[in-house]
Design a protein that fits this description.
The protein is α/β, with parallel strands linked by helices. The protein contains 11 helices and 7 strands. Strands 3-2-1-4-5-7-6 form a 7-stranded mixed beta sheet, with helices on both faces. β4, α9 and β5 form a beta-alpha-beta unit. α3 crosses α4 and α5 runs parallel beside α6. The chain starts with a helix and ends with a strand.
Length: 268
Amino acid sequence: LVKQLQAIMITWQSALLGIFLGVLMILIKHTHFLSALSFGWQMTFMRHTSPQDQREERILEHVQMYASVGNASSVLKVFDEYAWKKEFYMAIGDRKGLILDQAVQNMTGGPMRALELGTYCGYSAVRIGRLLPEGAMLYSIEIEAKNAAVARKMIAHAGLTSKVVVLEGTLTTLTNKLQNLLGEEGLDFVFLDHHKDLYLPDLLQLKELGLIQPGTVVVADNVVMPGAPAYMKYMKNHTEEFRTVFHKTSLEYMPEFVKDEVAVSILL
């Protein structure tokens, strides 16, 4: 009996060691994994990065150095390569970006009046802006002044200043300005990628103000990781109001086992 117990213990120890080594190899292979966890913690719980964190400036400098001026696709490619190999960024990224692209491209004639909440470095603004038809405009709202400054330069490098405008503030503080910019026209496309607990209240505010109407497409990133549970619950429980598809995918610039979802909804 003692020998059997000893054999079982050895087997379990070997299994645990194997699991530990497997995880360690993954962490070594993806050297920015721990950096991503730390950064995600800051973004989720501290609401912003510290003033000492200059990663936004670093990615801008890298893009300005290596991406072709006036070429949005080059900007996205250089950004993605840097984010995969060097540092984690909470941009939608190349993998989930295809879902965002499809949502824009599936709209007949393309969106003419689009809104983004959460500009960050300007990656998704470039991604959306490059697909907009002539005469269309994307208004992108960013709460952090330093991020807004970086995003404006990123958008300018991509050659999209005629289609993308970055507004500094929040939806609440910029409501009057946004209404003036839109005039009597409402939004036909909305991208949510700011604080996750603001997804639902901000969307409902847009609806209450009459800024979205039947047919408006709403895309929400990171609904699973870091997560927007109130938003997901609302969409699942209000199918008479929104028709939603939850696209299962993985977190930006992370191994595929780090799961996430992108919600694409249409106001009915």
